[in-house]
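dumping this here before i forget
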Amino acid sequence: MKKNQNNREQGIALITVLLILILLSIMAMGLMYVADTDTAINFNYRREQQSFFAAKAGIEEVRDRMRRTAPNTLDPYPGAGTSLLPTTVASDAGGVLYVINQGTDPIPVQPWTAGNRYQDDEFCHDGYTLTGIPNPFTGNVPSDDVRCPNPPSGPSTWYTKPNPAATGPATSAAPFSGTAAALPYKWVRVTWKQDNSVQGNGTQPYSVDGTATNSSTAATPICWDGTKEVLLKSPATTCEQMTSGLRPVYLVTSLATMNGSRRMIQAELAKNVLPTFPAALALDGPEASVNFGPYSSNNATVFGTDAAPTPCPPAGNWPAVGTYTDYDASQIASTLNGLPGSKSNNWKGGTTNSTSFNAINIGPWGNVAGQYADGTTGTVNASCSPTINSPFCPGTMGNLNQLATVSGLTALQNTIIQSADTVVPIGGTPALPMGTDTNPQITAILGDASFSGSGQIGAGVLLVEGNLSISGSPTFDGVIYVVGKGSLTTSGGAGYGGQVFIANIVSPPPNPPNPNILAVLKAVYGPSTTQYPPDTPGSPIFNGNGGGGSGGVNYNSCLANLGNDRIPYKILATREILY
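structure:
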């Protein structure tokens, strides 16, 4: 009898199903593994990103607190506290600031302590010479991708830290600081950058002047001139002593850690500042004496001697009026000396607050009398060399520097407008007050402006591109730039604490020049000269015949800095330290 072949195939379906189930299980486990791997990758990536942006947040917090007008500032006004910003390059004696963000971490954040979980293991790469770290001039510095074995081990004077250890001005003031919700950055270090501070290829850092590691300029501090980094030149010991527009470049390093991830960011910070000028009242343009009307008030004063109890850099004692040419200085001085009664005594300047400094040439073509705004003497068009007490040196641009040309004045307008808290269009009226001494503002008015009444109308920086007219007895602390039409009409009761600057860039200078000025132009540019150079501003207008009162312009170096104190530090460069 023949057997049924189907009996031999019994159970094949079960085996097939089991094989399929095994295959599906393998695939499911593979998918689960891939999913877990993706989850872990995403988690690690998120932690890395959180650490990266936390490190950047640390730099941003410090960058904001470097402004004098910022809450919890690291750089208080003179007399209001001690600045924590480094004023020397890092050494055993100081020059290093740490801002600590402890949060609720049970481990103390002490980057200055060897063996601490958050020790500063980058510092030896920045070219400074301190006890306990490799000397950059003799070698043995770890390669750029290797952490430093330890921070400096010299006296504790090399760094500034929070005082007391858990709180103080060098502690983070960011939202939620001191709580479990604090940003996970641990510390931020601030130093004054020097020539060989930035890591480069192998053992050769990137230097500002292109020199090698052990060159004579390697340890020279670096300044910012508004467009590029430059070396500090001896005998100046601060950037401000070189010219009014220079400020130090700070090297700011931030460490953040989170759940095992670590990111370190380094940035170079400096401030673009509005250039100052050596006079209480500056008339920027030739033949200003034709349009100069002194105060009619018996009590209005213009003093160039610094009224600040503790001077702010770049401090100095300047003339009452600064002019563009020798001829204008002599004409205005003659006018002021001939004022009736005690009025001539109301225009003074210099270190002795003397009427001999009622009007001095601060213009671009040299001072024939050899007398400069700070009272020093020299030759016509002497080469510019910084001195401790003379941040404004004579030269091709004179004491006005970039403000001596229409292009420089246009750049000034643009800088103020870009930094302004308020820009008032032509025909508009600004809300008053335009800032206070404790909260200064930068205001740019693109058209004409008129103010009257009494009380403070503002503080900080005021730019008026049209005509400016002020009556009554209002006050303004800071710097007023009347740059555009270059015309100011003011009452004797209006008070200006700081400086006033007037420049006409709408109208050309009067050609042919006054014969007295033309003689100087021929000496500078050649005997065939018949006109002013192309980039010369027109004649400014000052009219103080707007009524009586006891106001005037009184130079105060700290009030003149109110606007600059508000401008935030600029990030010049940023990079990640990859170890």
